[in-house]
Write a structure and sequence with these properties.
Order of helices and strands: EHHEEEHHEEEHEEEEE
Distance between the termini: 16 Å
Largest sheet: 12 strands, mixed
Strand content: 35-45%
Radius of gyration: 17 Å
Shape: globular
Number of strands: 12
Structural class: alpha+beta
Helix content: 10-25%
Length: 214
C-alpha cells in the first residue's frame, strides 16, 4: 500500500501495537474498525532498511535478537513475553562494534542495540525515541551503548518506565539517510519481523509514503 495514495485502516491485534499507539488509534477492535471505515486520511512516512519497508521501528543488535526469540514461539505473548525474553537474552548476548554514518556524520560505537525510529515506542508503552515524529520526513537513530552488563541490567527498568532517554547510555541523532557497518553479519528487524542482513546496512526515509485512517 505504500506509495499508492490509498488509505489503510488499522485494527490493533499485535503483541505491542506501537504504531497504533503512536497514531492515537483505539485499542478496542470495534472502535478501531469505525475509525478505519470513517476516519480522516493522514499521510505518514515510511522507513526503508536493506530494501525492506517499515513504518514504526527497525532495530539492529539486541533488539532484533529478542524479536527473533519472541517470534520463534513457545513464549508468553504481549508485554510479559517481551520482558521474559529480554531478561533471558541479557545473560548471553554480546554487544557489537558498529560504524554509524548519519547524513554524512560518522561515529564508531559499541552498542547493545541501534534503533532506526520513525515512531516513538517499541509497543506496550515502552518509549525509545521520544523525539521521533511519524510524519516529519526524518528518522531518529537511537543508540543504546553497552558499558558494562551490570549497568545495562540496571537500566532495564528505565525503559519500562518510559525514561530510557534520560540515562547516559542512550543517545539519538536525526537524519534521512543512515549507513551501518559491522565486522559480522547483522540481524535486524522491521516492525518486529526479523531479517538476517550483511555486514553493511543502509536506511532511508520516504516522506508521506503511506496514508492511514485516524
Amino acid at each position: 500500500m505504500a506509495f499508492s495514495g490509498l488509505p489503510i485502516g488499522i485494527v490493533p491485534a499485535g503483541s505491542g501495537n506501537g504504531l497504533a499507539r503512536v497514531l492515537g488509534l483505539h485499542q478496542k477492535p470495534l472502535a478501531a474498525l469505525r475509525t478505519a471505515l470513517g476516519g480522516t486520511p493522514r499521510a505518514i512516512d515510511a522507513g526503508e532498511i536493506a530494501g525492506r519497508l517499515f513504518v514504526n521501528l527497525a532495530g539492529i543488535g539486541f533488539d532484533a535478537h529478542v524479536a527473533a526469540r519472541f517470534n520463534s514461539g513457545g513464549t508468553v505473548r504481549g508485554m510479559r513475553g517481551y520482558v521474559l525474553q529480554t531478561a533471558r537474552s541479557l545473560l548471553r548476548y554480546q554487544p557489537r562494534q558498529y560504524r554509524l554514518v548519519t547524513d554524512g556524520q560518522s561515529t564508531t560505537v559499541r552498542a547493545l542495540f541501534i534503533v532506526v525510529a520513525n515512531g516513538r515506542e517499541f509497543g506496550n508503552g515502552m518509549l525509545i525515541a521520544p523525539d521521533a515524529r511519524i510524519d516529519d520526513g526524518a528518522l531518529e537513530v537511537v543508540v543504546v551503548e553497552e558499558r558494562s552488563r551490570a549497568a545495562t541490567i540496571c537500566r532495564v527498568p528505565w525503559l519500562l518506565a518510559r525514561s530510557i532517554h534520560r540515562v547516559p547510555i542512550w543517545s539519538s541523532r536525526r537524519g534521512s539517510r543512515i549507513a551501518l557497518a559491522c565486522d559480522e553479519p547483522m540481524l535486524f528487524h522491521v516492525d518486529g519481523e526479523t531479517v538476517q542482513g550483511g555486514i553493511t546496512l543502509e536506511a532511508r526515509v520516504h516522506p508521506g509514503a503511506l496514508t492511514v485512517m485516524v
